[in-house]
Amino acid sequence: xxxxxxxxxxxxxxxxxxxxxxxxxxxxxxxxxxxxxxxxxxxxxxxxxxxxxxxxxxxxxxxxxxxxxxxxxxxxxxxxxxxxxxxxxxxxxxxxxxxxxxxxxxxxxxxxxxxxxxxxxxxxxxxxxxxxxxxxxxxxxxxxxxxxxxxxxxxxxxxxxxxxxxxxxxxxxxxxxxxxxxxxxxxxxxxxxxxxxxxxxxxxxxxxxxxxxxxxxxxxxxxxxxxxxxxxxxxxxxxxxxxxxxxxxxxxxxxxxxxxxxxxxxxxxxxxxxxxxxxxxxx
Amino acid sequence: xxxxxxxxxxxxxxxxxxxxxxxxxxxxxxxxxxxxxxxxxxxxxxxxxxxxxxxxxxxxxxxxxxxxxxxxxxxxxxxxxxxxxxxxxxxxxxxxxxxxxxxxxxxxxxxxxxxxxxxxxxxxxxxxxxxxxxxxxxxxxxxxxxxxxxxxxxxxxxxxxxxxxxxxxxxxxxxxxxxxxxxxxxxxxxxxxxxxxxxxxxxxxxxxxxxxxxxxxxxxxxxxxxxxxxxxxxxxxxxxxxxxxxxxxxxxxxxxxxxxxxxxxxxxxxxxxxxxxxxxxxxxxxxxxxxxxxxxxxxxxxxxxxxxxxxxxxxxxxxxxxxxxxxxxxxxxxxxxx
Lengths: 283, 338
Hints:
Helix content of chain B: over 70%
CATH superfamily of chain B: ABC transporter involved in vitamin B12 uptake, BtuC
Order of helices and strands of chain B: HHHHHEEHHHHHHHHHH
Distance between the termini of chain B: 34 Å
Number of helices of chain B: 15
Oligomer: heterodimer
Structural class of chain A: alpha/beta
Strand order of the largest sheet of chain B: 1-2
């Protein structure tokens, strides 16, 4: 019977950490069109940056700046119009769907569940890319899922129903499912959106620990300028579909630039640890 | 630790298989010609062992010529419709999806009637036409039910209602216009009726059933993920488009198959998957086989009631399922709206 449920991790030879450059984005651009012939309704790019293992990269920008579009390119959901997005040397949009899911995990905005699901079953979904199409979870899958839940500190939630979790708990469980995929690249789409300030800090600390301890490359789309400065190694600043600047927070956080991008008066204060802080001006 | 094992799927399916066997025996027993349970079991065992000579001809006739074919047809129809319902619910991400409610059964019925009018003698043509009618209808309903790129629950159900009334009108029109007594006799058939055996070898029909249910079963891991969100399923490596095509074709095939032999029996595809979810959870790897077996049990029992409640007169089995199904549908809908 167990032959049906085989779930051995058939991982590609290029496991994370084999090379140091995990993610390489080279002049990647994209355009949305209503039809093939019509003029693009939104254009992104070209965007160029790299991210190594252990690094957290923040993609910053106001609404409609192209953050989500860039994320679809990184996740391989859309093929760049020009340029390349590579993970460990392989072009992301050309990877087999399952191989891609073994390397890249995306923590998206939560979606509504049609039928109730327990946390444990939800996290085990992260094991889907490993094994056959019709599969039953193996003991090994359960081990990975349990580890993933432990990594996000959610062991005690395992028998709860997904729709009975608080926003912060749900966020952790969704992250656990992504970790169960054993990816080398972790993409998070506005993960702090529904969290209170304590939850936000806790999540970013957790991401920092995961990146440091597990050789993940973490990429976070966010609106949180201060959190990005505090926890991220690299910032990609987007505005109206253009990549304005890539670098550390100290390099990117320029008062005039940020004021123009976010259309709000603000001040930048350099803290002793070399990470800038953004202070909003009331009037 | 493991949420579902193949062993559990086999055990629960076997248990439901036993329930189905009991339902079949009860159904064989009930009727104008009295037969005792031991006699039925003996007869079935004799037949199974190939000792047909020991069976008295009266028994043989009642069991194998009259009651069993009808029961076998009920199993076919019940399994088809409830598996199709479970498939449509995942495909459309809509817990209220059902071949009848969405108008797919009506589309299949229209296809079947057209084929009866044009090529009544061609074997398998009615099944093919019903399949085509089912597939075309669900495609139209799906596109009518979309709003802003999403399939909206309420809009989809409205599209289904519109499809049912429109297709019923076309069927009425055809039945009035076309000559021939058989067509007029179809009013009963349209309510869902197991009394008239199909003119095609049932071996083919069962083969189609196995293909349809089997195809949906092969996608059951994918469907579990699609139910938590299509986009998320894509991120997890599911080839969503492939799965959708497989389920779309297989569920249309199953609906066409059921309607081509029994007319439009309603609510089975809604009732059974929901009942099975309540009992065994919403995992499709378990839901597909349990729905198929549960659907078979439901139709066998519903048909038993339909032919015994007001005996010697018979009700269409579709009336029995609608009597139970419509209130359950309302209940499920209100619970979701809440």
